[in-house]
């Protein structure tokens, strides 16, 4: 058993955790063997390399920052041409590592790799170009990366498919199947003669990332359906888009079906309340994920969280109206904030009440008041630095109490922006640096 697979075994049994994977400890040594003639490149988005009778097959290609290192790692295990690259979906941490192999093919007089993906990947790339500025903004917040530049050049697929696609690589048949889950353009790869299943981001050692607050629609019911289909294959090795492999059909079936049950429960509970006429506020505070599922080591809500998944189910079926008639045609939030601050005795009074609530543990309510206080405080007022100093403390408290990466990132980003405002730092428009109310 390889070092990586031994580590994966320890993670499954609870003797170890995924910190070594996320820290990049396994990346330093190149490709990691996971089966005969199969390697894993552990990265932000994992890459899997298969040696076949027709050359090398890659499932995903990683991100732009590791593209050169990936090619060197691949060449360390063999000089066969990279014949085919399959994209599991179009997220940038999975599709930006093909260029070095294209250049290598041109230098050696070989055909460049054939890239295969679901047909919606091309539409995703078009959308990424159209919304490059927006994606730079939201990913800067999500990953706490000020100045992030969103890519606008993508390696387009050579072959696209709609539902299924069969690859024949000499002795290695590969069945590709489309599903919708975290994305609308996802591909699963099943190698029946090897018992190997590449599942992309349908599984990632966390509660499913089905609710990301800043990203486009996710597909909760269809994600559960795809997980159940994969669970029925009897795979012996599961190769996920993030996290470490899982070996053994019983373990694979257990984790895929548990993930499906979590998603299906949230989906059905939200839909039941919607059908009874509930508002979004009632749904958000009325639907809970089963505690026994969230307690499983592979379903902990450390990246996304069930409350965000609930919102995505609502958005899928119900549109943007949340059931609050005052929000249908709202006044500007800054106007509402100024009115409430005036009633309270000023923005600083509102902020101080927010801080008192936070110190008493009511951080959610405190967040509302702190945000209103910041919106109401004029940038040239004497109380402006104090209000933002309090806002920073309140959102730092929210960050500390949040369980998911998504929530921590947004709260932490907000706190940093208010700290900058409290120090008098401004951008060219006179606003706190990077702050968008």
Quick summary:
It is built from 17 helices and 13 strands. It is α/β, with parallel strands linked by helices.
How would you portray this structure in words?
With 437 residues, the chain is an alpha/beta fold. Among the domains are: 202-320, no CATH class; 331-422, Alkyl sulfatase, dimerisation domain (Serine Threonine Protein Phosphatase 5, Tetratricopeptide repeat, Alpha Horseshoe), CATH 1.25.40. It has helices spanning 3-13, 19-23, 67-77, 92-95, 99-108, 120-130, 132-142, 220-231, 249-275, 280-284, 291-294, 306-318, 333-344, 347-359, 363-376, 384-401, 405-422; strands at 32-35, 38-41, 47-52, 55-59, 82-86, 114-118, 159-161, 164-169, 172-179, 186-191, 196-200, 237-240, 246-247. The protein has a 7-stranded mixed β-sheet with strand order 1-2-3-4-5-6-7. A 6-stranded mixed β-sheet has the order 8-9-10-11-12-13. The chain starts with a helix and ends in a 15-residue tail after the last helix. Mean pLDDT is 94; it is low at 427-437.
Overall body shape: globular
Q: List SSEs in N-to-C order.
A: HHEEEEHEHHEHHEEEEEHEEHHHHHHHHH
Q: In total, how many beta strands?
A: 13
Residue-averaged pLDDT, rounded?
Answer: 94
Largest sheet: 7 strands, mixed
Number of DSSP helical runs: 17
Strand order of the largest sheet: 1-2-3-4-5-6-7
Spans where pLDDT lies below 50 across 5 or more residues? 427-437
Percent helix among the residues?
Answer: 40-55%
């Amino acid at each position: 058993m390889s070092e990586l697979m031994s580590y994966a075994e320890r993670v499954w049994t609870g003797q170890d955790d995924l910190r070594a994977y996320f820290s990049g400890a396994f990346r330093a040594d190149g490709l990691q063997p996971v089966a005969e003639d199969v390697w894993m490149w552990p990265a932000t988005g994992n890459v899997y390399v298969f040696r076949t009778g027709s050359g090398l097959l890659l499932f995903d290609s990683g991100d732009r920052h590791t593209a050169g290192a990936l090619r060197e790692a691949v060449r360390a295990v063999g000089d066969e041409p990279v014949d085919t690259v399959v994209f599991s979906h179009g997220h940038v941490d999975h599709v930006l590592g093909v260029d070095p192999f294209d250049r290598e093919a041109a230098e050696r007089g070989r055909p460049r790799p054939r890239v295969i993906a679901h047909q919606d990947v091309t539409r995703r790339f078009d959308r990424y170009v159209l919304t490059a500025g927006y994606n730079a903004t939201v990913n800067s917040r999500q990953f706490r990366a000020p100045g992030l530049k969103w890519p606008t050049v993508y390696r387009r697929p050579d072959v696209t498919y709609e539902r299924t696609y069969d690859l024949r690589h000499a002795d290695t048949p590969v069945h590709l199947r489309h599903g919708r889950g975290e994305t609308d353009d996802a591909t699963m790869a099943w190698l029946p003669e090897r018992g190997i299943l590449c599942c992309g981001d349908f599984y990632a050692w966390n509660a499913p990332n089905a609710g990301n607050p800043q990203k486009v629609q996710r597909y909760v019911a269809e994600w559960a359906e795809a997980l159940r289909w994969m669970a029925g294959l009897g795979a012996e090795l599961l190769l996920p888009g993030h996290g470490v492999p899982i070996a053994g059909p019983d373990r694979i079936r257990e984790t895929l079906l548990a993930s499906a049950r979590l998603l299906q429960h949230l989906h059905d509970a939200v839909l039941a309340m919607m059908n009874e006429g509930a508002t979004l506020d009632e749904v958000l505070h009325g639907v809970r994920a089963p505690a026994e599922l969230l307690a499983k080591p592979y379903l902990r809500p450390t990246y996304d969280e069930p409350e965000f998944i609930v919102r995505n189910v609502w958005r899928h079926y119900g549109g943007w109206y949340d059931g609050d008639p005052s929000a249908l045609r709202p006044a500007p939030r800054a106007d509402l904030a100024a009115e409430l601050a005036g009633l309270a005795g000023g923005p600083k009074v509102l902020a101080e009440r927010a801080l008192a609530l936070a110190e008493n543990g009511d951080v959610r309510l405190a967040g509302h008041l702190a945000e209103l206080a910041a919106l109401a405080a004029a940038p040239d007022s004497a109380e402006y630095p104090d209000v933002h100093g309090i806002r920073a403390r309140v959102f730092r408290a929210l960050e500390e109490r949040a369980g998911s990466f998504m929530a921590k990132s947004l709260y932490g980003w907000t706190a940093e922006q208010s700290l900058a405002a409290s120090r008098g730092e401004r951008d060219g428009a006179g606003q706190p640096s990077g702050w968008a109310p």
